[in-house]
Amino acid sequence: MIRVLLVDDQPLLRSGFRALLDVEDDIEVVAEAADGEQGLALAKEHLPDIALIDIQMPVMDGIEATRRIAADPALAGVHVVILTNYGLDEHVFHALRAGAAGFLVKDIQPEDFLHAIRVAARGDALLAPSITRKLIDRYVTEPLHTGVDTRLKELTNRERETVALLAQGLSNDQIAERMVISPLTAKTHVNRAMMKLHARDRAQLVVLAYESGLVVPRQR
């Protein structure tokens, strides 16, 4: 059973998402919150698999709530999915850096919404190749100053190659084809890289790949 926490300051929107989720046999909405502070408290109480969090909310916004969830070892199993009206904007970008597994636009089709919940629950990032390219474009103008470089030394050559391909938006199957390995081996490389780099999910590996300089975005 996939346990979901809804965090949005609009009751009507929460009700709409809940109505979609409640009819699914494998998904359960465990709690609702109207702001990030309440959402953080409920995440600690219920330990959901997925926290659907709006960005712009009173008291505590979605970015700060995401940052605090990502920083709490007790919430390591909580995958944050950001809800937004505008697609990949600056707020979503910062939420991904804060630890979000991906994002959904609020006018998403119901079937795509349900599929995304299941994808995120598996631990896969909600970053399609087109979104990854936009993320890369954003990094062209962002400073690359973090302490990630030394941690990259812990990766094997194959793991570094896997992370580099992941940062280009490739799926496990595509990575496997490019590296002439099995999809299971590609997934193993990804998981080991996540563990060594202390990344919560694939989205964080993409962020780390560019911040560390492992992959350099092309100039526009």
Describe this structure in words.
This protein has 220 residues and is α/β, with parallel strands linked by helices. A five-stranded parallel beta sheet has the order 2-1-3-4-5, with helices on both faces. It starts with a strand and ends in an 8-residue tail after the last helix. The longest helix has 15 residues, at 183-197. It has eleven helices and five strands, in the order βαβαβαβαβααααααα. The protein has helices spanning 11-22, 36-46, 62-71, 90-98, 110-121, 129-140, 149-152, 157-166, 172-179, 183-197, 202-212, and strands spanning 2-7, 27-33, 50-54, 79-84, 102-105. 38% of the residues are buried. The chain has two domains: 2-126, Response regulator (Rossmann fold); 137-212, Response regulator (Rossmann fold), CATH 3.40.50.
Task: Provide keyphrases for this structure.
220 residues; Rossmann fold; transcription; globular; 11 helices; NreC/VraR/RcsB-like_REC; five-stranded parallel beta sheet; phosphoprotein; DNA-binding; transcription regulation
